[in-house]
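Human: Not sure, check this?
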Amino acid sequence: MSLTALALVLGAGFLHASWNLILKRTSERLLVTSWGLLLGAVIFLPALIQAGPPPARVWPYAAASAAVLLGYYTCLARAYDRGAFSLVYPVARGTAPAMLTIWAIVFLGERPSAVGIAGIALILGGLVVLGGAPMLVGRDGERGWEAVRTHARGTGTAFLVALLVSVYTAIDGAAIRHWTPIPYLVVVFALAGAALIPLLALRRGRHVFAVLRTHWLPAAVIAIMTLAAYSLVLSAFRIAPVAYAGAAREIGIVFAALAGWLFLGERFGGVRTLGAVTVFLGIGLLAAA
């Protein structure tokens, strides 16, 4: 990868971990992210106006990506309800590069090198360590199967988040070959938000709109950070292979691990640290491939 592409994905990783930390500390996670989608589309609407109407061939990508985002944000909020930030984030983001590589090979015609394959293997090895950590030490000194039961729910949902991340990333990686990143994301965010808010309103009534009044600031910050971070990633996709740039952006795992320790008082421990470092090393190999 070029230094420019690497700088783009490093910035994206920092922004992504930051808005996930804000989300973790928010009580109404799904509603905040749903409003964040619409607010992001509104805030960056001038970019869409300047770019003009989306090309016809972009609409199928945007609609598919928006549909996947509905599942992604729902599962992400649920994962943070069930598991620790320092566990959910590394698993959700660390698994995605391996899955994304498969989609890039099958649908985008990319072919990873031997170094890239080694990076994927390291990532998977790190995830085995991360997944096994609860069997050794859990929350508040839990051990054995008690700790496994405590963490299994959040970890399982985090793996589903990773699958959805890999799918929408592959879709968007193909889409930006036909259009520019920010206007494309405005369309995707608008479609996803316009679908999520009415669905949530049917289930939760006026509370959906009350949350916007009480949580507008975190929703707006998450909106800006989300669109900015992913715009950097999509810009990197235009000058680097999707499989490699998509993997390198997961440097956010390291930022998230530090954030969980520094700001949330979460125990990370030696086993999880080893797993996170191994995942990071694998990402480094993919970035260098």
